[in-house]
Amino acid sequence: MTVSLSPRPEPDGPAFDAHAQQAALLRLSDQFRALDGAIDLAYAAAEILGTTLGISRAGYGTIDPATETITVERDWNAPGISSLAGVLHFRDYGSYIDDLKRGDTAVVGDSRVDPRTASTSSVLEAISARSFVNMPVTEQGGFVALLYLNHAEARTWSDAELAFIREVADRTRDAVERRRAEDELRRLNATLSAEVQQRTAERDALWEATPDLLSVATLDGSLVEINPAWQKVLGWSIDELKAVPFATFIHPDDADRTAAAMSRLGAGEPVFDFANRYRRKDGAYRWLNWNAVPRGGLIYAVVRDVTDAREQEDALRRTEDALRQAQKMEAVGQLTGGIAHDFNNLLAGISGSLEVIQMRLAQGRSADVERYLAAAQSSAKRAASLTHRLLAFSRRQTLTPTVTEINRLVVGMDELVHRSMGPSIEVEIVTAAGLWTSCIDANQLENALLNLCINARDAMPEGGKLTIETGNRWMDERVARERDLPAGQYISLCVSDTGTGMAKAVIERAFDPFYTTKPIGQGTGLGLSMVYGFARQSGGQVRIYSEVGDGTMVCIYLPRHRGEGEPEPLKQEPGEPAQARDGETVLVVDDEPTVRMLVVDALDDLGYVAIEASDGAAGLAILRSDTRIDLLVTDVGLPGGMNGRQLADAARGERPGLKVLFITGYAENAVLSHGHLDPGMHVLTKPFAMDVLGDRIRDLIGA
Known about the structure:
- By secondary structure, the protein is α+β, with helices and mostly antiparallel strands.
- It has a seven-stranded mixed β-sheet.
- Strand 18 (about 540-545) and strand 19 (about 550-560) form a beta hairpin.
- The protein starts with a strand and ends with a helix.
- Mean pLDDT is about 80; it is low at about 10-15, about 390-395, about 520-525, about 570-575 and about 665-670.
């Protein structure tokens, strides 16, 4: 710090000594300890300076360097001297403000002769400040306050006095700033306390008013604090709830789950969306849903009563179940009605033809017997086709899955598809290069593809374009979920047309059995349901994409085959049934005498030795003998506690490698291992043609 001095005038006032300085400083310290406010501290310093130095005025003010003003709240004045409290502009009293802004103390002994104040001396003398000391107080390099001393007459300011003034100024600045900091801290504390009280009041209001159950509990399961909602929901008083561990109120069936959740909380893990049941005072139970976090050895939880919501969900579920049951019964009614209608027609053809044959033979007329036999056989075959379609829809048809090259299958059907479409429909086949193989029943896929092509043809009465397309499809979780499939690799076989398209309501019912939009007599309503059943039974899916007027695309998705196996060769046209070799013996086990008779007679005609049994136990007794058996032909559904599969397994135990042919009215998937049979085991579905039976037996024995 530097001091800007004016020429020294003659001394005026009492001499200043060191004892007086020490006494003044002691008195200043006492005052600082006794006083609280910053203004009072500044005034005490001014009073001690004024009385010790014998001057007219002393004061302390804060500075605004930008506006070059000083604000004085209170100053000490000698008798007869007026106060300067208020705001004063430095430039009104001279140019010494420039010294102060540089951090220099301005010392003026006589304003009349000091060049900084000569022009404004009259103004200074008017406020009793002909002689003055202005000592700047700086903080972090800034001019923030001023200690000023004024005297009405010219006087000399000695070095000892200036040092004393500096000491008082520094102490005053420290004390004032400390008091101001303390005052600010008290103000902040008061504000914070008020805010805390307000927040506490708000929290208390929420604590009291919220319908949620709020709680603080120990890790061993004791409730420390709970809000009134607990009493409202459970009926127990707050004291009753806090008096015992809350496990006391938990439903016994939820005790283990709750203990596991508490263990997780004890390990420092939060528990969210955990529901258990709590016993009310009236004995009823309420479902409570917890969100809890452990903090500092306690558990803080927000709990919600979800009993009503669960009851609503249960009611909705029951309603949905009832709706599904109603829809199921509607479908069953439609299904049984359709079956009854079609089978009555077929049975009428069979029984009527047989009755006519019986009458003609009784009359000795055999000329037209062949025609009526053909009619009966035709009705029987149509009945067999109908049952196959129904089994396909129910996913219980007998499948013979083989590794199949779908591209080769589609190309092999090219001529049949063209012939079925007619000249007004253009057919295009687009096969994907590098198409994966799939382990499926190739015959059933051919039937499914032909069904889709015929449906597409019927949707284009005026002609159009039919496209058959294959492709490899990678399905991630999202895409597979949209198609109700597990994620993975699939082959797609899509049939699209440029026909009339389908409305959304039609698409939703398209797979229902006997549902058709075709005119009466032009469709059974089983085509798409058969396609759907085949796809689902093969581990795949079928989807319809259509808009009214924009055509339709139906896609079958089949799982990719990754195992071993060669593609199934293309089937050949049937020839004459192969005859048995000498001594080849077939054991026939079937509980239906008519079926057993027909199979045995067919085997006799082909030259086989046929042995028959009516149930599994009788068949097993023959197998355990030393009789030659080259092939076991057995029904799957046998009486007596041993089904056909169990008989075959027991036979393999007696005769390893024995060939087995299962004949069944429908594919009992669980019995036949869902189509995955051991080597040397095959399935033939009833009804079957005798020549087909002969070919299958010959193939099995000769393999």
